[in-house]
Amino acid sequence: MTIKVLHLIDSGGLYGAEMVLLNLVEEQVKAGLSPLILSAGTPDIDEKPLERAAQERNLPVCKWRMKAGFNLPEALKIVRFAQREGVHVIHSHGYKFNLLMGIWPKSIRKIPVITTVHGYVVAPRYSKMWLYQKLDRLILPRMDKVVFVSRAMLNQNFFKGLNLKNYVVVNNGLNFEAELNKLSEQLNQPHELISKFIENRKGPIIGAIGRLAKEKGYNFLLAAFKEFLGDYPDALLVIVGEGPERKNLEDAVDALEIKKSVLLAGFQNQVYSFLKSFDLYVMPSLTEAMPMGILEAMLAKSPIIASSVGGIPECLEGGKAGVLIPPAEVSALTNALRSLWETAEKRQEMAEMANELVCSRYSSKSMSENYHLLYRQIIGEMVGLTV
Length: 387
Fold this sequence. Notes:
The chain is of the alpha/beta class. The chain has helices at 16-30, 49-56, 72-84, 95-102, 106-109, 128-139, 157-160, 176-188, 192-198, 218-231, 246-256, 271-275, 292-299, 312-315, 330-341, 344-361, 364-383, and strands at residues 4-9, 34-41, 61-65, 89-92, 113-117, 145-148, 167-169, 205-209, 236-240, 262-266, 280-283, 304-307, 323-325. It has 2 domains: 4-173 and 364-383, Rossmann fold, CATH 3.40.50; 176-361, Rossmann fold.
C-alpha cells in the first residue's frame, strides 16, 4: 500500500521547521510514499516562501487560502478534502493545524493525525502566542502521535507537566547529498556581500545565521562582540537572517558604536558561502528545539559556540563537538569567543568531531524512515490491522 500523507502548515517564512518539512517530503517521494504539502495562508497572499521552495524542488504542494483565526468551517473542508483524496495520515506542523485538526473526534475525521512539535518560543504572558501555546498543550494529548525533534524538549517547562503517553522523538535531518553539493558550489563562488565586507581585514570573523527574533539572543551576541573587539579590534561580526528584531539590532549596533565591524546581511540563500567564511559560528539562542542551523554549521566544519538549550547539547555531544555556554550571559559568551579563537587546534578538533556526528546521526533519510515506521503504526492502530 502506498501511504498518502497530507502535511499541514501555515508558514510565516522559510526557517528551520520549513526546511525540515521540505527535506522530509523529498525523502518520502524517493521512498515511494505519496506526500502532499497543504500550505495555508490568508486570501491576500499570492505565494509563500515555502510554496516557492517546494516548487523549486519539484515537490507536491497545494496552496490553500482561508480566513485567519480558529476557522472551523475551513478546517472541516480540509478534513473532507483529505478523505476524498484517500489520505492515510494527516501530519500537522504547528499550533494552527494542531488545533484545527485535533478538535475533531476520530469518528468525524476518520484519519489519524500526527503532529511534529518543532519548538516553542517564550511568549509574553497573555499574548496571542502565549494563548496558542496553552491551547496547543491542551490539544496535544488528543493527537494520535506527538513527535518531538529532540529528547531535550521533554524536559522543557512547556511540556514537562503534560504526562504525554503518545509521544516519540525523531531527530531532524539534512539531505547530505544535496547539502554537500551546495557546499561545494558555494565554496567555489564566494558571496559578493561577505567577500566585500571582509576585504583587507585580518581579524577573526564571527558569524551567526538565523531569524532575527528575540529568542535568538542576538542582543547578547552584540554585547559580547563589543567586549571581544577590545582584544581584537580587527574582528568582524556577520549576522545572516531577517525578522522582526532587525530595527532593534540596528539600534543596538549604533548604541554600542560597532557599526563598522558588524554586517546585518539579511536573508541569504547561500548560507555555506557565509559559513565557510566564519572563523567562529555562534548560536546564542535563549530557546531551541533541534536547530537546523547547528546541523548546517556542523556539516560545514565551522567551529561552534552555542547556548546550552534544547537539543543543542545533544547535537554537540555535551560540549565535545562545540563550546556550550549558558544562555543570556554576555561574559560567558565573550570568554568563549576569546578561548576558542586563541586555540586553533581545539577549533579544528571540535569542527571535525561535529562533522562526523552530523553525518552519522542527522540524515533526512533516517528521519524519513522513522516517520514511515510511525505512519504504519498509527494507520494500523486506526483500522485495526498491520500495514
